[in-house]
Write a structure and sequence with these properties.
- The longest helix is centred in the N-terminal third of the chain and has 15 residues.
- The strands form 3 sheets. A 7-stranded mixed sheet has the order 6-5-4-7-8-13-10, with helices on both faces.
- The chain has a domain of about 35 residues.
- α3 crosses α4 and α9 packs antiparallel against α10.
- By secondary structure, it is α/β, with parallel strands linked by helices.
- The chain is built from 10 helices and 13 strands.
């Protein structure tokens, strides 16, 4: 077991904080299972604190960045692969929204590209795509897609110099809350975007009504999440790192009924049991029924890189 590391506020640098929730952990170290997109470790998390100066909510203490990276590099997520069609439906909607801000369909870099579902959709719509992903397995799965051969490399945003080009768009879907240094990540993205380029990202919103009502039972309090942004703090991050906020919109996940039941089994088992039973009684194939889900606690953010004067 490795020692956890205390950390200062990543937004303002203050070391003064108030504890929001004490840690709820079965083990201190992350592992590849707890880092998968589809993991069911809801309610297991490092100590969550709130900066007394700027209000950022984050985890401290936590594992080192190297230990975290090692866990992500070993991720294999068969459930994600089985549920790819829901991701396709989600990303097709996101792409249409994104193209409203960047209709030219130029060069796009996806950080945390997973198995390449988003980039495959983007390539099919005429984008020139590149991606970077820490999981070796995910990178290999992505490379099996015909449109993505040679387009996704292993690494993190810290390896962004592997790409010589500057980009019209950089995307991070459900990524920024997992990073040890979100400010550095955003500054790095700004450096790789063309002037006036678009940053598109999604994240969880701890300031949402659903998060506030749920309190300690909010499903997104998880070991893999190191930061919990709200609209105020994410806008402060963007301004500090060289971006102008364009829009904050609800993020709608499209998931199969099968996956919803899978998640409910870990969140509220009686509901999962009842949903599974009803599916059988009504002869519903839960794998092929897809449902849009939005409780207001996941947001999509669009921002422009500020042109240097």
């Amino acid at each position: 077991m490795s020692a956890l590391e205390e950390t200062k506020c990543n937004l303002c640098g203050s070391d003064k904080f108030t504890v929001v929730y004490e840690a709820q952990l079965k083990s201190e170290d992350p592992d590849s299972a707890s880092c998968t997109c589809t993991n069911t470790g809801h309610g297991e998390f490092y100590r969550i604190v709130k900066c007394n100066k700027c209000g950022l909510i984050y985890c401290s203490p936590r594992p080192s960045e190297q230990i975290t990276f090692d866990s992500y590099s070993e991720v294999c997520d068969s459930v994600y692969k089985e549920q790819e069609h829901g991701r396709v439906l989600t990303f097709e909607k996101l792409l249409k929204e994104l193209e409203g801000y960047c209709p030219g369909k130029g060069k796009i870099l996806d950080i945390g590209a997973s198995t390449g579902v988003f980039l495959n959709c983007a390539a099919g719509r005429g984008w020139d795509v590149q991606g970077i992903e820490p999981s070796v397995w995910c990178t290999e799965e992505a490379s099996k897609k015909e449109l993505l051969k040679g387009r996704i490399v292993s690494g993190t945003y810290r390896d962004i110099e592997k790409f010589s080009d500057k980009f019209d768009v950089i995307s991070m879907w459900d990524v920024i809350e997992h990073l040890h240094d979100p400010m550095n990540a955003l500054e790095t993205c700004a450096g790789k975007l063309k002037d006036g380029g678009l940053l598109a990202l999604t994240t969880i919103d701890i300031g949402s009504l659903f998060a506030k009502i749920s309190g300690k039972r909010w499903p997104w309090l998880m070991k893999m999440h190191l930061y919990y942004f709200d609209r105020k703090t994410i806008e402060a991050y963007l301004k500090e790192s060289g971006f102008e906020l364009l829009a904050v919109k609800p993020y709608v996940h499209v998931i199969s009924l099968e996956y919803l039941i899978f998640k409910m089994d870990s969140l509220f088992r009686p509901a999962g049991f009842l949903m599974r039973l009803l599916s059988k009684i009504l002869f519903i194939n839960a794998k092929f029924i897809h449902i849009p889900i939005s409780l207001g606690d996941c947001i999509t953010i669009y921002a422009l890189k500020v042109k240097k004067s």
